[in-house]
């Protein structure tokens, strides 16, 4: 339940800020799960077990986990966390 809530929190933030993203469900793809595990830097892996979703990437670049995302949201540095410039978010208004 906590994992789903955290995933929804990230998705809502990205949608609200019109940041393009692709949500990948690693429970449906062993290949995607292995890619995620392989692309998280060793020093960012948990001491025990596998890293839990959500894990956040910008293209192939690892950004961090939910805790890192939450901290960046609290300190208003999410664009930097995601490796984006604030101007990269779409400024289009709703039709």
UniProtKB/TrEMBL annotation:
Keywords from UniProt, A to Z, are:
Nucleus, SH3-binding
Q: Which PANTHER family match?
A: SH3 DOMAIN-BINDING GLUTAMIC ACID-RICH-LIKE PROTEIN (PTHR12232), SH3 DOMAIN-BINDING GLUTAMIC ACID-RICH-LIKE PROTEIN 2 (PTHR12232:SF4)
- Spell out the protein name for this chain: SH3 domain-binding glutamic acid-rich-like protein
**InterPro entries, sorted:** Glut_rich_SH3-bd, SH3BGR, Thioredoxin-like_sf
Family statement: Belongs to the SH3BGR family.
Question: Where is the protein situated, by its record's location annotation?
Answer: Nucleus
Q: Which organism is it from?
A: Alligator sinensis (Chinese alligator)
User: Does the record bear Nucleus in its keywords?
Assistant: yes
Gene Ontology cellular-component terms for this entry are:
cytoplasm; nucleus
Q: Which GO terms describe its molecular function?
A: SH3 domain binding
Q: Does the keyword Lipoprotein apply?
A: no
